[in-house]
Amino acid sequence: MKFLKLFFLLLIPFIYGCSSTGGTLGGLFPMPKFMKGKVKNNIYHALDGSFEIKTPFKQGSKFYTYMKVKEKYSNIGTYVSFNTSIYPNEFYRVEIGKKLDKSKPSVPFKKLVKVLLQGYVKKLSVYGKIKVQRRIQTRLDGKKAVLVVLVQAMAARRSYQGVSPSYSAYHMIYIVKSPNGGGLVWVQWPNACHSCQSGSEAEILASDKRIKEYFKSFRLKI
C-alpha cells in the first residue's frame, strides 16, 4: 500500500508545494529559468534520474521562452510540469512514484490504475464536472501501461490577463508501471479532440504533433 500512498502524497501538486521557474512577469516579460532538472537538445532530464521526456516546446522558440516549469523532488517521487503563457490552458506533466521498499511485492497494475484514477477524478472535479471518456490498455516505453482520457467542463476563471471563458478540457493520461515504481504522463488539452471520443490510441495521439512527441519521448528510468 505504500506505493499507492506515495502517489497520493503528490496528488495534484501543481496547486501547492512546487517550486516554479521561468514563465512571465505580469504576463508580459519572460523570466529566466533555473531548473533543478536539465534540458539538453530539447530533452528534460530529471534531477534524480527517474525519467527523461521531450519538452513540449523547443528550445529557442518563443513558446519555450515564455514556458514555466514546476518541479517537486522528494525521496518518494517526482513531479514536473510545463506550461507556456502563449497557450495558457495547455499543461504537460510527469509524476513519478518510487517504490520505497524494493523487497515488497508490487501492487497489481489493475488496482494501481483504479485507485489513482479515482483519486485524480475526485481532486480534479473541484475545477468542473469530469468523467472518464476512454481507457485503453497499451504499452509506453516498452512497459505495461493504460491510456486514460478524461473530459472536463472547465468553468470560466479570472486572472491578470482577464476572464478566461469556459471550455472543455481533455486529460490524456498514461499510467505506467515498472518493477521499482511507476509514472503518470499527462497532457491537459483545451482544444477539440474528436478522436478522444471513439478513436484508437494512434488516432488520439495524432490529434496534435506536440502531444504525440511528448508521450512517445517518455523514458522511465526506475
Automatic annotation (TrEMBL):
This is Lipoprotein.
